[in-house]
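Reopening this ticket.

The earlier resolution said the output was attached, but the attachment link was broken on my side. Pasting everything inline this time so it's all in one place.
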Amino acid sequence: MAALAGMLKSAGYHVTGSDANVYPPMSEVLKQQGIFYAEGYRPENLDSDTDLVIIGNAVSKTNPEVQAVLDRKLPYRSLPQALAEFFLSDRIPIVIAGTHGKTTTSALMAWVLDRAGLDPGFLIGGWVKNFQGNSRRGTGKYFVVEGDEYDTAFFDKGPKFLHYRPQAAILTSIEFDHADIYSDLSQIKKAFSSFVQLIPQGGLLVAVHDDPHVLEVMTVAFCPVETYGLGDSATWKARTLEFSGEGVTFEVWHESRSLGRFSSPLPGRHNLKNALAVIAMSVRLGIPIEAIRSAIAAFQGVKRRQEVLGVVGGVTVMDDFAHHPTAIRETLSALRLQYPKQCLWAIFEPRSATSRRRVFQNEFPKAFHAADRVIIADLFTPEKIPVEQRLDPRRVVADLVAAGVRARLIPTADGIIETIMPELCAEDVICIMSSGGFGGLHTKLLSALEEKQRGS
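Inline output:
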């Protein structure tokens, strides 16, 4: 919402807004752009001459400002509707969709287009380090959108990505997620099928090959489909992979033709596949191979995706947004490749709507096997999930211990710091995984490590 507000401001509109909690970095970004925002929701936050209200999906119909909008009969739109109306109608939208990897892939797609001199617009659900932001109007013909399958607004329970008018798309993966709005995997696949069918016959779908659900969904596409992956059956393939502490190098093949070697500083096979998808799309858009190669090598990634926050006393503290078992498994597998000899700690807070539910009770223990030490925190606001639906973190820990993994349940951030500080050694790598703030664990841990170093 803040990103869209900034784009509207740059387009010449007067923009104000409201939120329950506005915090950095977006609070600072809004101030820098001269956008006033109110803390809390009140009818008086709506100016008397308001022409349009954009309503995010985090607020319900009972919200006091929403009620004022309805009472005053003010025009309103959802975020996806507004984005399409104001910024996509005269552009070529490239929409990146999938359960996993869409933020990084969207950011990399926008970066390649930018480095090729095409000045794309973009709206991405993460802070892109190369751009120091997550949105831009751009002046070029392309607009990159991270296509979220989550619902749109209280008045539109369909997925957001159905509003984005895709002319081209990348589909990275399909798994069950968002248990608060989807009842099962078939509903998820139905949503993605509807999205794929929006791409016109003259468009292009680039789809991952090693996901059976993606292979099923792509059969309903009206447009040409090209696949990517690590297997020989994909249209676009990566071969002769070499992983190191500096990332990965690989050779790209399109059918029977080699495009040469590429290097990416991002670790792991999942990030390699994200890069391969962008390479495939970029070639099809006519971007020169050398420009693509250079952009891939210079891509710095997205905040909260395997982001190193600091190294204190030889201990590396890392932040990651992973909250789905597959994302956790891929993240830890990537870190194991990047730090093969170090002690790898995984500290996880079940915080998202799905991770707090027991739908992945049996999958979570398998996701942590690449870690040497595992800490599971208690559920975030467990009272919001019915008792019979809640994940049992104690059982997750018990299953890990039974599998030979050193795992513990430590309910709070402060308790985690108190427990692990005496156990940490130089060269340890700590990956903190949460879809939220985790009680300030990241900064508290870095502060504790700095204090320990000063006292030594």
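Reporter confirms the inline version is readable. The chain has a mean pLDDT of 93. The chain has three domains: 2-74, 81-298, 307-455.
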